[in-house]
Design brief:
Layout lengths: L1 H12 L7 E2 L22 E6 L3 E6 L2 E7 L7 E7 L5 E7 L7 E8 L2 E8 L3 H40 L7 H22 L6 H7 L3
Antiparallel strand pairs: 1-2, 2-3, 3-4, 4-5, 6-7, 7-8
Helix pairs in contact: 2-3, 2-4
InterPro entries: PHb, PHb_sf, YvbH_oligomer_dom
Protein name: PH domain-containing protein
């Protein structure tokens, strides 16, 4: 146990630690991830955690992960996760003990799990990110339920209609019903699948 503690202290002193730092908003334009943000489409950075090898750039549209192979390598892999296509879930925040140097935020974005260590001195800022992700997860869960309920309602209506005697041109009726179903589902997804979470970030992140 003591060896691990001294090892972490030595690594931090030598600059080898991979504990992330929360970047000040005035320096967002200096991070590597800024080059890959869709500024032209209204995407905006709200929160950045940067370690020796990785950057986690949280925007109103999702997460941009600039994944480094190591602290000494210049090779980077840019991975994008968007709220429109992937659900945020299982968000947890682990605070620091007496001898810990870091705190940890964990969450899943779709099928990918993230665990990010952050300097414990920045606990207040990380709490803001934690609350933001929890709220995003809550809204996405509510939207998923709404879409599912709407889909089930449409299915029941179609099943009831299939048991009725239908008069007229069957080809036109089937075509009209198909178009109605497509329009119904498109409207559901449009109303209950947020692409932009600017309001949530502005509510919890104090930029």
């Amino acid at each position: 146990m003591a060896g691990n503690i001294f090892g972490k202290l030595a690594a931090d002193t030598l600059g080898l630690s991979d504990i992330g730092k929360i970047i000040d908003p005035k320096d967002f334009d200096k991070v590597d991830g800024d080059d890959y943000i869709m500024h032209e489409d209204g995407e905006k950075i709200f929160f950045v955690i940067k370690s020796k090898s990785d950057e986690y750039v949280f925007t109103n549209r999702g997460l941009l992960h600039v994944d480094g192979a190591s602290a000494v390598s210049k090779k980077r892999t840019v991975k994008r996760h968007e709220f429109y296509y992937e659900k945020v879930h299982t968000v947890t925040l682990e605070t620091a003990g007496t001898v810990d140097l870091d705190i940890e935020i964990k969450f899943s974005f779709g099928n990918e799990k993230f665990s990010i260590d952050v300097d414990k001195k920045q606990i207040e800022q990380l709490k803001d990110l934690y609350k933001t992700l929890v709220e995003v997860s809550r809204i996405q869960g509510k939207n998923y339920t709404a879409v599912e309920d709407g889909s089930n309602g449409l299915k029941m209506a179609n099943e009831a209609l299939s048991r009725c005697v239908i008069e007229g041109n069957i080809t036109n009726i089937v075509q009209d019903l198909t178009n109605f179903n497509l329009d119904w589902m498109e409207a559901l997804r449009k109303n209950y699948n947020n692409r932009d979470f600017t309001e949530v970030f502005e509510k919890y992140i104090n930029n």
